[in-house]
Amino acid sequence: MDFDFTWLLLSLPIAFVLGWLASRFDLRQLRFENRQAPKAYFRGLNFLLNEQQDQAIDAFIEAVQNDPDTQELHFALGNLFRRRGEYQRAVRVHEHLLSRGDLSRADRDRAQHALAQDFLRAGLLDRAEAALQKLEGTHYENAALLSLLAIYERSREWVQAAAVAQKLDATEQASYTARRAHHLCEQADEQISAGNATTASAMLQQAAALAPDAPRPAIDMAALQLRRDDANAAFATLRALSERAPLALPLYAAMLQQAAVAAGHAGEALALLQRRYEESPSIDVLEAVIALGGVPPALPGALPSPDDAPVPRDGYIAHLAHQPSLVAASRWLAGERFEHEQFHPQVQRALDQATRPLMRYRCAACGFEAHQYFWHCPGCQAWDSYPPRRVEEL
Predict the structure, then answer these.
(1) Which residue, of 98, 122, 173, 313, has the fewest CB within 10 Å?
(2) Does residue 390 lie within any of the structural domains?
(3) 369 domain residue, yes or no
(4) Which residues belong to any copy of the LapB rubredoxin metal binding domain (predicted)?
């Protein structure tokens, strides 16, 4: 049987037409998908600018599905998830980016940094630490060191914090000497608690040499010297500090008074405190003066007449002449006798209750208040953010 070539000749044009139609269909589909991706991207951007994060996320997810190779869409989507608190989804996005073999070095470092931020915001400090350590030697190294420093300070790992702060200090982009001195003081506190006073003293001396103008190393050293019954050394330390850091005197005025009494230098301490009080009145300095049996300098007419010898309690009246103070008024009234003395305890309790919040310290960075003075704010983790004065005096 002979083969009929007629059918072959007819099938060639038909195959060509079918191939051409198929290619046109694929091309249209490709063009449609390419148009859909930027449309979804711009729609998501518009939602983002209008602070409609839910709709923006939906639009970006659609754009990523249409164009899964676009890194910028993944970064935008991951950052949106993190801002919304959906840290698990943000981690998945950035881990997916890191798993891609075609990612450039710069984008890989960027994804690693974003992943570390996801762990930080989620409170997964161990995983954040591991992610940040992988950024050493990259463009994000300085930012990673700052984040590591915050992690170590928050978890009170002072040895690691000191090492990171030293690296940051070496970059010369900012000075971290004061913070490194704080780290040494914190380590000294731990050594004191463990009974290693000699090691603690060496650390405090190192901190003082590192930040000679910072008041904390000297204050902590004086406290350690008092614990070791060396009142003369403690008084000498605080007397020298009063010349370098007079504004911080309210923080250590009571300790100065205690060391002076124990060392037999009460008269010298009283003169020093009275002089500093005259320069900058403070309730803490006032109480130290009164504890030493003195009265601070007063404005004319603030104290009883010269015929009546002033007593230490009159110091509160002298303080009221310098500045209004509910605390000073309450302390003065506590020692007074009145016609209706039977009601005095109730009135005094009410005044003490009212003045208790006024004796707090307040962080200048976040407003966190505490009766104890903090060098490291427990609210915002800032250093040296507490003024050395009570809330009433701010």
Answers:
(1) 173
(2) yes
(3) yes
(4) 361-385
Q: Of 227, 296, 279, 301, whose CA–CA distance to 258 is shortest? A: 227
Provide the whole-model pTM: 0.76
With vertex at residue 166, the alpha carbon angle to CA 138 and CA 187, rounded to the nearest 5 degrees, is 130
Task: Give residue 345's pLDDT band: very low, low, confident or very high (50, 70, 90).
Answer: confident
- Sequence-distant (≥ 6) Cβ neighbours of residue 230 within 8 angstroms: none
Domain count, the chain: 1
User: 367 lies in a domain?
Assistant: yes
CA gap 224, 100 in Å, rounded? 57
Bridge partners, 362 (sequence order): 369
DSSP state of 369: E
Question: What value, to the nearest 5°, has the Cα angle with vertex 314 and ends 311 and 319?
Answer: 145
Query: Residue 369: beta bridge partners?
Result: 362
Across 23-27, 295-299, 384-388, which has the greatest mean pLDDT?
384-388
Residue 295 burial (CB < 10 Å; 0-12/13-18/19+)?
Answer: buried
Q: How far is it, in rounded angstroms, from Cα 325 to Cα 285?
A: 14
185 is in an annotated binding site: no
- Token pair recorded at residue 128: 């954040």
> Is 371 part of a structural domain of the chain?
yes
Tell me the CA distances in angstroms from 329 to 140, 278, 283, one per residue in order: 56, 19, 11
- Which residue range is the domain that position 391 belongs to? 360-394
Using alpha carbons, select from 40, 45, 42 the residue that is nearest to residue 65: 40
